[in-house]
Design goal:
Chains A, B: Pfam families: Pyr_redox_2, Pyr_redox_dim, Rhodanese. Chains A, B: InterPro entries: FAD-bd_OxRdtase, FAD/NAD-bd_sf, FAD/NAD-binding_dom, FAD/NAD-linked_Rdtase_dimer_sf, Pyr_nucl-diS_OxRdtase_dimer, Rhodanese-like_dom, Rhodanese-like_dom_sf. Chains A, B: It comes from Candidatus Thiodictyon syntrophicum. Two copies of one chain form a homodimer. Chain A is built from 15 helices and 30 strands. The first copy, chain A, is α/β, with parallel strands linked by helices and 567 residues long. Chain A folds into four domains: 190 residues, FAD/NAD(P)-binding domain (3-Layer(bba) Sandwich), CATH 3.50.50.60; 116 residues, FAD/NAD(P)-binding domain (3-Layer(bba) Sandwich), CATH 3.50.50; 120 residues, FAD/NAD(P)-binding domain (3-Layer(bba) Sandwich), CATH 3.50.50.60; 94 residues, Oxidized Rhodanese, domain 1 (3-Layer(aba) Sandwich), CATH 3.40.250. The first copy, chain A, has a five-stranded parallel beta sheet. In chain A, strands 9-16-10-11-12 form a five-stranded parallel beta sheet. The first copy, chain A, has a five-stranded antiparallel beta sheet with strand order 21-22-25-24-23, with helices on both faces. In chain A, helix 1 links the parallel strand 1 and strand 2. In chain A, helix 1 runs parallel beside helix 8. Chains A and B meet through helix 1, helix 3, helix 8, strand 21 and strand 22 of A and helix 1, helix 3, helix 8, strand 21 and strand 22 of B.
Chain lengths: 567, 567
């Protein structure tokens, strides 16, 4: 340690930046490390903003404190980590030839030029706003910064707003929707495209929309914001593309983010096709002495191999750690890429996903795929199990799992984490079909939901089961197709709720004795289902055993039916 | 289908048997399938017995009904599955040359000989009882059959028993312990060996024991049952190996099970060294026309390659499915083996494990392993996160994860399922260190607990962190070793609770300014910790940076300390 200590400058003090700085410090007590942070706070728990805004907890300090209760301010960084943190300071430019960063202290206007040996760019992303009239009215917020969280929390505490609109039906949009709902505000989520939560395939997206609508918030799809309406500079409503006007005193914009890459671009660093800073697997930019990580970069999909944007807090931390290692020991750590995993709580529902949806897989050129939709409980009924509805996507040739989406009141999080690891391990359906998972009734069915998904997939891949989606069934019914629809539940279940699509009820136990009620034409299309289509599948096997050749199981059964039902 | 239908006979009607039968039926509507079941019921949800006995639910029918509420009796099997189920019928012998099974209807004594083309043996296992005096006293139960569950439930409902002893500190023992506790019965668990829950390493096993003792049940370790004591034929107490007498009106035996392999052995089938029926990966016995699955067989460990016994309900179902496929299409399905995954709820704690413990790995000849013990929250503190304490085991050379144990009030089940899949995928620590898991504050920390475990492991494998277990620290302290023990928490944390092992408090933020309080001898052993040893690790890095050469982090920190604490 007799040589000159390495000088590290980190631009950005939210997630990836402080993580890189702290990791570098742990590997080199003598490095000179400086963080330049535009905002007033450091290492904010930004994913917690919706829960603070919604009143899940009230102590704002929890967003900026260590678990031991120490505020993560400049003093903390100095004392605990010997890292100089310059807050309210904006990085203005990078001089790569001179290896300096010029920054400005925003309150005083004073500028300062910092030399570096290694530089980290963790400039994050900026919330996009629709560029429509009225976008500067008072009452239009986003939920990106701690200031935004404070503003939204103040709305809750003031109890003045009665109607709000959330612009954007993605993860953040629904987290905000939940926060507003918890604040007692009547909320409408507006989504420009035809479906909310674009990482879900249509059937599951519709089920979530149904749930949200019946549990306290409205959703308008296929309709963007044409204008924000106001009086005296204050928001009074939102006008949609189709002319509808929704009165509201608050609008929260959550249509996505744009990587903050202008500083990097101005320094001549390579920017990717998606607008993020290009980095290699070491998180190194086109300048080997400059690393970048977090929301401002593009990553590699471990499934499609394509470049993608993945602005998630967990990935920012992982990337920051990799950067921290490489700052001290160049080339020692890699960030291989992402598997597109995400999760969101919406009221008592969870929506999770990992890998690719069928739509995303096809868009990525994977055409030889198979999908299954499966409904089932997370734990046994006698333990008060709750519903899960999932869709699994696999490559038909290799059997490799490509994606998994899961929604419902059940324990989605566990199944998505399990499948995220399965996808990371490039497991096939055959592997999953015999997975040795932790089973006890408080935690799982004897055959866990993800194993059942694999079993159904195996049955489809082997041609034992022909599936048909609820979407296709609805289209068939609406088109007046000549298919025979068979509900195989018990009379009691049928009395309680039925689809009302011209179905015939023959309970499973009676099917073999009532085969004469089935269509005499053995080539006629028969669609079978039950509550979740397990009995439906068994009945399809029976019919095939007696010679019917065109029997399809409606996947997910009644539980997956996102259209109106009778009773 | 003009040929003679295949004749399938299945011996055993609990889990693997009915699953094999039902799967075979789905693949061949015309097969003749018969189940021979010694007990009165079929397809019982036997893993639910502790929860029925403990009053988690009251409707006994839930244990023997389909989710739609139909009792899974012979009539159901006939109508829904066209499977003949002979209940209260015992298989007496197998004639492999004639390909017949002779069975006896127990109530009538009538015998019958059934011809088979393919036979399935799913005879399960029998509860072991300690062969000690008094074992025939009234008041000694087990929890294996539905009758046992009824008996234990009757104990609860009668409210007569005040003191009970559970013999055996494994999974079932603690499930029974919880059920008795819920019934308001003062319970003592007796374990013959030195540690409860033998799939856990000692540190975690001790933490569970501490928890159970402070939450309503007693545990006596290293002491077996010498005799059951009684008066008038009724149990009045248990005498231990060391002479202690525990008064109790109820004893529940849960010391393990023995595979029911006598029928198979009498038929000349190969029995494994562990007493289970030997099967290949198709679940085929030494007679290719006879399959076996469930608690009566031995399986292959996917980690060590060794033969093991794994009497779990989920595996029985998986094996039954594989058998069902092979009955109809020989050689079409494989059960590759197990990864030693299990889980158990004990009051508000969960105990889970997958892969090998350090002790098991060493016993299997894997000597070049590394372990880490990590404590942390499952979700953020501001979301009311709960503690997890885990131990991860990895192969030092390849970095491959070999095992994971996790305990605590937090969401253990998710982490064990995640790691079970990681182990199934043969993932390495490097893979885990950048895992893309579902993150949102209701479900996880930004860096999930399992990722943090991988990070700590990586630090140890790379020699950046030297760890020391709480067990070793305690031994050092008890031996009066000349080590300097450093607690790096805040004064407030220290005031609330401290270990009292001669430690010096220097909060992390003050460490660099107080280096003069550290031992001047840079080779002296320094042991550092904090609440969970994250700050402890950072402080160890600081001390190493200033030249101390023998700094060790006490893994898991205060949260993993299973010995008495001050205050």
């Amino acid at each position: 340690m007799s040589s000159q200590p390495i000088r590290i400058v980190v631009i950005g003090g939210s997630a990836a930046g402080p993580k890189a700085a702290a990791k570098a410090r742990r590997l080199d007590e003598h490095a000179a490390i400086t963080i330049i942070q535009k905002e007033a706070d450091l290492s904010m728990a930004s994913c917690g903003y919706p829960y603070y805004a919604g009143g899940v907890f009230d102590d704002r300090n929890l967003l900026i404190c260590t678990p031991a209760g120490i505020v993560r301010d400049s003093g903390f960084f100095e004392k605990a980590k010997r890292i100089e943190a310059l807050v309210l300071t904006e990085a203005l430019s990078i001089d790569r030839a001179a290896k300096t960063v010029t920054c400005k202290h925003l309150p005083s206007g004073a500028t300062r030029t910092l030399p570096y040996d290694k530089l980290v760019i963790a400039t994050g992303a900026t919330t996009l706003y629709p560029s429509v009239p009225g976008a500067d009215l008072e009452g239009i917020l986003s939920l990106h910064s701690l200031e935004d969280a404070d503003a939204l929390r103040a709305v809750r505490d003031a109890k003045q707003v009665r109607n709000a609109v959330v612009v954007g039906g993605g993860l953040i949009g629904f987290e905000v929707c939940e926060a507003l709902h918890l604040a007692g505000i009547q909320t409408t989520v507006i989504e420009k495209t035809a479906a909310i939560l674009p990482f879900l395939d249509a059937e599951l997206s519709k089920l979530v929309a149904n749930y949200v609508r019946t549990h306290g918030a409205d959703i308008i799809k296929g309709n963007g914001v044409a204008a924000f309406l106001g009086e005296d500079g204050k928001l009074t409503g939102v006008k949609l593309d189709n002319g509808t006007e929704l009165p509201c005193e608050l609008a929260v914009v959550a249509v996505g983010v744009r990587p903050n890459a202008t500083l990097a671009a101005a320094a001549g660093l390579t920017i990717g096709a998606l607008g993020g800073i290009a980095v290699n697997e070491f998180m190194q930019t086109s300048d080997p002495d400059i690393y970048a990580g977090g929301d401002c970069v593009e990553c590699t999909s471990l499934i499609s191999g394509a470049k993608v944007r993945a602005p998630y807090g967990d990935l920012a931390n992982l990337q920051g750690r990799v950067i921290g290692e490489n700052l001290i020991t160049e080339g020692s750590a890699k960030f291989p890429g992402v598997t597109h995993t995400g999760i969101c709580k919406i009221f008592d529902y969870t929506v999770g996903f990992t890998g690719l949806s069928a739509e995303q897989a096809r868009a990525a050129g994977m055409t030889d795929i198979e999908t299954v939709t499966v409904a089932g409980l997370d734990i046994p009924g006698y333990m008060n199990g709750k519903l899960l509805v999932s869709k699994m996507v696999a490559d038909r040739k290799t059997g490799r799992v490509l994606g998994f989406q899961c929604i419902g009141p059940g324990d989605v999080s566990k199944r998505v984490a399990t499948m995220a690891m399965a996808i990371r391990g490039q497991l096939t359906i055959a592997d999953l079909a015999n997975a040795d998972l932790p089973y006890a009734p408080p935690y799982s069915l004897a055959l866990d939901h993800v194993i059942v998904c694999a079993h159904v997939m195996e049955n489809k891949l082997l041609g034992r089961m022909k599936g048909i989606s609820v979407t296709e069934v609805k289209a068939r019914v609406d088109a007046g197709a000549d298919c025979f629809i068979l509900d195989t539940r018990t009379p009691r279940e049928f009395e309680e709720q039925r689809l009302g699509i011209g179905e015939t009820l023959i309970p499973q136990g009676a099917l073999r004795a009532r085969l004469n009620e089935l269509p005499p034409d053995k080539d006629r299309e028969i669609i079978v289902y039950c509550a979740i289509s397990l009995r439906g599948y068994e009945c399809a096997a029976i019919l095939q055993g007696y010679g019917w050749r065109n029997v399809k199981v409606m996947e997910g059964g009644v539980a997956a039916w996102p259209y109106p039902r009778e009773r």
